[in-house]
Amino acid sequence: MFYCNDCAEKNGYPETLSKSFGKCEICGNNASCNDCPTSKLINYTNIIVSMTKTSEDGTVAVVPSTKKQYPIIDVKPNGIPDWYTGAFTLCFVYSKNAGNFILRGFRGEVEKYLQKNYHHYFCYWSMWHNGQARGHWDFWKDHVGFFEPSKARKDWKYQVRPYTTFGEHGTTPEQIKAMTFSFKRLPKRWIPEFDVF
Ligand SMILES: [Zn+2]
């Protein structure tokens, strides 16, 4: 017990995998309820607007600013509740053909949905568990990586480039250099430069 599916839908709360019968915290009806106290839920709307992350070296705002609200697509859960695939996830997608949008659901299902329905995109995965977030950037092709600013490398820019092991016999440093894009701030939409990958 905690909140029923009707209330989940009305409030945009996630449906949890474990359920139990009891009195809904919100409407008071007896029903099969999602096993998560509403006090533990994060206000997802606020997260989308205000989500920033401070990493160990003090870099701030890894998460894209979304003052401009993007459409949210809910992906239905049907997966396994482990931390990774079962983590509540917001995926900010910047696509070439479908524009910017957010996928909301659990990591495993969202990833499958994204790969099945889209191509030519980069995205930021924000995964939530017990009120804490972890996240990373991703490119639609596996051989391309997003490298965040790093104190260790004394590099304060983002780099988007192929991994060095890319290609049949690996890729030469010259080839990598020709396909390396540096950004002080990552673009907030697909850019033609990314067509090269
Ligand atoms: Zn209810």
Quick tags:
16% helix, binds zinc ion, 2 domains, alpha+beta, 197 residues, 11 strands
Biggest sheet overview = 5 strands, mixed
Q: Average pLDDT, to the nearest integer?
A: 77
Strand content: 25-35%
Give me the number of helical elements.
4
Contiguous runs where pLDDT drops below 50 for at least 5 residues: 43-67
Structural class: alpha+beta
Give the distinct bound molecules: zinc ion
| Overall morphology | elongated
Quote the distance from N terminus to C terminus: 49 Å
Strand order of the largest sheet: 4-6-5-7-8
The value of Rg in angstroms is 19 Å
The string of secondary-structure elements, in order, is EHEEHEEEHEEEEHE
Our count of domains comes out at 2
In helices, the fraction of residues equals 10-25%
